[in-house]
């Protein structure tokens, strides 16, 4: 049964003459009326290298769509660069911007009754914000991200912005060395080259099935990225007609991003040691679509999914470009499928099932198609460029070494249970998260005295000032979604712990969150947060904290009675919070629900 075009609201009927006049003033041809109007949700900005190359691509997509007879209208969302916003109170705005992006997409698409949308995202909060909007609106949608940044290597090891941050705070490193590293750490456009949050989310979008093969790993500078945009533009038109002309609901985001798809995506996330932010965002995206996907599901998966792929910051040997050479996301999924860990019946935005795409895009088959070789041979250009598709270098061979290559098979897994874990205990009755893939196995069990700080800034000062010593557990409170507000990423304190060469000697726990660039024994998203009365707010210096990743527990060594009798520690910091952020804080949930807005 056909579906009526949403846009008919403003293009049909005598009384909409004014709206039609305005559509034609925008450039719509009269013969386009009565066909789907496609929104191009772009996110170009020159504040973020992951978005600085998106200016022209929106109009290239428009041209591709209009060749097929549909009118396409581009608009832009905001995009915050976490790596620039952090280290000061700019980071308070990062997570709140996710929900602002989701709202801005809803406003534009519903105000103008667009029929379908192609979402051009990339960095940390933009992809999840647009995914939240897609699940909220549930109109035909295709995702295509700006693509990952090339990785700079020094003596075969990754040298990225995390390297720059750690070296810069290490007094033993010269100014010249710091300058040398910062000059090469980010060699142009794209989302920072490790399995940080942006690349984690763009890879998960590919796993969920809302983007095309290669979306998570084809480099931003490669010409194959432009081909991906052209393919996505053609696909959104095809899907819009399937939905409105044929009544085919299978192209809708909620038909694709089902509970099974979320479980597949989380399985991938655990297997690749993705950023812990993905847990926060997947919970929020599922919530928008009414999908039953909770922290308990993540905990259950983390106990049986092996870690099959480690990229920066979990290793300095590989980054996204090497993952692409090993077959990218669909080949990690292929290895997981061999272990029966996926539901491959899930249908994807290209109309295929996951089983079909895993089979078609495997690089381990006898004969690999030229299309598959083209995608996974995309290699770095090796020169600075902030222009999309500025080079077309290729690898001579693909990485099919599943024993010691970038992607492992289950027999050669880094660990039998995954790269992410959920812990519970009297500090986190509703859970907290840790990226196990980034924790040295020697400290999966750790106990030590608390050193408590009620702000990220105070913690940074304490770590750099020598207040934190080997054996300590750094506790950063009142940095949750409500308490911060905005649940800051704690990349600076976790990096400073490394700068002070305490990486294996200290733990850090917080109701805040971590950048995907964080590794080490860093436990975040503690829920309930201190600002919601959580027990983390009762911890004082010297309390013994017991962390046990294998047994999934985190406790302060106090009896229930002692803990209940403890008062909440007062907040001593002096932080100026704007009205906009206070409004956010007044409605936001703790991290265990994804830091979502609670209205009803
Ligand atoms: C590398 C740090 C990056 C900018 C980030 O914020 C993340 O991955 O979340
Ligand atoms: Mg981030």
Word description of this protein:
By secondary structure, the chain is α/β, with parallel strands linked by helices. The chain contains 22 helices and 14 strands. The chain has an eight-stranded mixed β-sheet with strand order 7-8-12-11-10-9-13-14. A four-stranded parallel β-sheet has the order 2-1-3-4, with helices on both faces. Helix 7 (161-168) runs antiparallel to helix 8. It starts with 7 loop residues before the first helix and ends in a 15-residue tail after the last helix. The model has no long low-confidence stretch (mean pLDDT 97). Bound molecules: (3S)-3-methyl-2-oxopentanoic acid and magnesium ion (MG).
Compact summary:
It contains 22 helices and 14 strands.
Number of helical stretches of at least 4 residues: 22
Rg (CA only) = 24 Å
Q: How do the strands line up in the largest sheet? A: 7-8-12-11-10-9-13-14
Helix share, percent: 25-40%
Structural class: alpha/beta
Separation of termini? 34 Å
How many strand elements? 14
Q: pLDDT under 50 segments (min length 5)?
A: none
Q: How large a portion of the residues is in β-strands, by DSSP E?
A: 5-15%
Give the overall shape.
Answer: globular
Mean pLDDT: 97
Bound molecules: (3S)-3-methyl-2-oxopentanoic acid, magnesium ion
Could you give a short account of the major beta sheet?
A: 8 strands, mixed
